[in-house]
Amino acid sequence: MTADQLNRIQALAAEIADASKTFKGSSELFMVDSPPFLKKCEKLVALVQSPAEHATSLIVRTMETAVIRTLISLNVLQAIPTAGFISLQCLSVATQTQESLLERLLRIVTRTGFLISENGAYSHTHTSLAYVGQIGALFAPCYDEGIRGLIRLPEYLFVKDKEEAKSARHSLFTWNEGQEGKSTFEILSTMPARTEGIHTLATNVQHLRPYTGFFDYAKLASEDRERFVFVDVGGGNGHVIKEILQAFPQIQPGQCVLEDRAETLELARRTGLLPAGVQLLEHDYLTRQPIPNAKAYHLRAVAYNLGDAELVQLLKQIVPVMGSDSKILIAENILSDDKGTAFSTVSDMIMLCIGGKERTERNFREVLDEAGLAMDGIHRAPGLEFGIVEASLKMP
Ligand SMILES: C[S@@+](CC[C@H](N)C(=O)[O-])C[C@H]1O[C@@H](n2cnc3c(N)ncnc32)[C@H](O)[C@@H]1O
Question: Are 336 and 328 a contacting pair, CB within 8 Å?
């Protein structure tokens, strides 16, 4: 270690000691970037760690990730009492899992401090306890739909093209599931627990994907009652239309359409979120858009599920039915060219698995251009990467 490195470590340690005097606690929000105090601590670890220590820690952490996911699915974390200890034997009986296997799995998570072990018995830390609840419910789908496939990326790229998936039907995800040729949504619809996990994840990152506060949907309102104003393409269970109509009463429910796959529309009917009057239309977004001349075709959290070629294909199905003042509104993260946030970086890796993509402004311009559309503007939610890309027909 050089004298300069040592000086930097000591200066940072002093800064951390100083900042600890006013430290008010950590963030409880999922997928947000580390707040300043934690960032400093992470920077200190990076400065102190040698490359060998980094690699060791990375290997242990990666294995711990798979083990924590396993402990959740074996109900091991759930079987540990919220206060006090449980013996290995009792844990084995409660989870119907071989004692010696459990002992080995638990060794890694007690080593990292995730769980506590004393005299052959185990107890929770405040972190592991949180994994029994909401944090575990958010961690599991990230593992199942992202990490699980990503671990096999080197192998996948070795047998496949070394490029982004051309179609969501032929992705790392479909290959890993042994179901190439099917769409991600078709595959997931046969897995209710994983679909539920994704739904829980999506509803718990709304602080990073707000519905309103950055785009004036009121300007879409039309006196012409015969004209559709808001077509929500791949609109999900109706929560988006509900929120937008609530915030912009100028838009009439009867002028809105929720388009999605039959199964999702069924879910929308069951959840009853949609305001009365909104029409439901079964539609495959890779086929011709059935509603002509709408004021806006809205795609929220849809573009990122698709690779460039499929997004262009989707947009090209709308372009021929657009009027001269029709808009396409794409609500997504709009990444900056250099560094992403924790949320968009993680999301992009999950999308890489399923054949989708988080995009920069430049990426959006390219796909819009190829589909015959021009970007009219970007409306970002304050302080977030999320926003609306507004587009319309290219002028001849
Ligand atoms: C990530 S969800 C986003 C839902 C909603 N827009 C939101 O912001 O919560 C993607 C949606 O696309 C729908 N979808 C997937 N493939 C589709 C297809 N081929 N045609 C129409 N909708 C599709 C799914 O059913 C799902 O509702």
Answer: no
Q: Is any ligand 1 atom within 6 A of the Cβ of residue 235?
A: yes
pLDDT-derived band at 22 (thresholds 50, 70, 90) equals very high
Beta-carbon-side half-sphere exposure of residue 58 (alpha carbons within 13 Å)? 8
**What residue ranges do the domains of the chain occupy?**
3-132, 134-203, 217-393
Indicate if the pLDDT at residue 396 is higher than 80: no
DSSP state of 319: G
List the residue whose alpha carbon is closest to atom 6 of ligand 1. Answer: 235
CATH of 3-132, one of 3.20.20.70, 1.10.10.10, 1.10.275.10, 1.10.3720.10: 1.10.10.10
- Give the class (CATH, top level) of 217-393: alpha beta
Q: How many A from CA of 159 to the centre of ligand 1?
A: 30
Residue nearest to ligand 1 atom 11, measured at CA: 234
Query: Are the C-beta atoms of 358 and 331 separated by less than 8 Å?
Result: no
114 token code pair: 């995730």
381, two tokens: 């939610």
- pLDDT tens-digit readout, 239-286: 999 999 999 999 999 999 999 999 999 999 998 889 999 999 999 999
Separation of alpha carbons 258 and 281, rounded Å: 6
Contact status, residue 127 vs residue 114, Cβ threshold 8 Å? yes
Domain 3-132 matches domain 217-393 at the CATH topology level: no
CB 227 within 8 A of CB 293: yes
